[in-house]
Specification:
The protein has 270 residues and is α+β, with helices and mostly antiparallel strands. 25% of the residues lie in helices and 37% in strands.
């Protein structure tokens, strides 16, 4: 009888050891997958608010006073819907690359003729997550913040899925963030989330968060608990004096806090 109890105790102990070993082995995997699980929840909740802004832009170029050359360019830009009526925020420079030439004038080189670029957006459509395309128009631009606001020109039967700019988070340095990007047509318009960290915080003239490795703009950025941080935009040098012919533009992606986007969006709503 005693020997049976010993054998039973031994089997129970072995079972517990095996169970604890399984838990120990799976713990790092669970920790490693936690951001992925949180990211998937963010995707499921907010992916329909990430849309594609389809554009037709007339580009006019002239070089050294020669006859201007005109051509039509079709492009797609990421947009984030911020109101049920379809008001959408876009990176201005991503929507209209001509803004880079307007804002940053390259230094004049003696003996070299001037180069001018002019752009005009002639057609705008919002492509929703379900493939529906809605005619729209640009209603407000903020060159300093790289913001453009686009609104549908016709109503849909149902409200648009939209992020809530009023519910925002303020991340700390090295905190994780989740951004939602949508691929272009050759990527079947698939949602493409990214998990980054905040690698820098620019405190003034207004707070801007710099995501690590992020290069997509016009997309929403969330904390891992699902709160909106802001919208990714492009930051350009404020003065051409810092540029030389051999330097690039020095532009990089930043996250503009949701509260700042909301402040400008109120003007667009009006």
């Amino acid at each position: 009888m005693a020997s049976d109890q010993v054998r039973c105790a031994g089997k129970c102990a072995a079972a517990w050891i095996a169970a604890l070993a399984c838990l120990w082995l799976s713990a790092p995997h669970a920790v490693a997958d936690e951001p992925a699980a949180q990211g998937r929840q963010i995707v499921e909740k907010w992916q329909d608010a990430v849309i594609t802004v389809r554009l037709v832009v007339k580009v006019t170029t002239s070089y050294g006073g020669a006859e201007a050359n005109e051509r039509e360019v079709k492009s797609d830009a990421n947009g984030t819907v911020i109101a049920p009526n379809g008001l959408t925020v876009v990176s201005l420079t991503n929507m209209d690359p001509g803004e880079i030439f307007k804002r940053v004038r390259m230094p004049t080189i003696p003996g070299m003729p001037s180069f001018n670029v002019d752009t005009q957006i002639t057609d705008v459509k919002l492509r929703l997550a379900d493939g529906t395309e809605v005619p729209a128009k640009v209603i407000l631009r903020d060159k300093d913040l790289d913001l453009a606001f686009v609104r549908p020109t016709e109503e849909l039967p149902q409200p648009f899925a939209a992020v809530d700019l009023a519910q925002s988070a303020a991340p700390q340095l090295l905190d994780q963030v989740v951004t939602l990007n949508r691929l272009a047509g050759f990527g079947d318009w698939a949602i493409a989330p990214r998990v980054d960290r905040i690698q820098a915080i620019i405190p003034k003239p207004r707070t801007l968060y710099v995501p690590q490795g992020g290069d997509e703009v016009g997309t929403p950025a969330f904390s891992v608990d699902g709160r909106l941080i802001g919208i990714t935009l492009l930051r350009l040098p404020s003065s051409a004096e810092a540029l030389s012919a051999a330097e690039d533009l020095g532009a990089f992606a930043v996250i503009l806090p949701a509260a700042d986007v909301l402040e400008v969006a109120k003007q667009a709503q009006e």
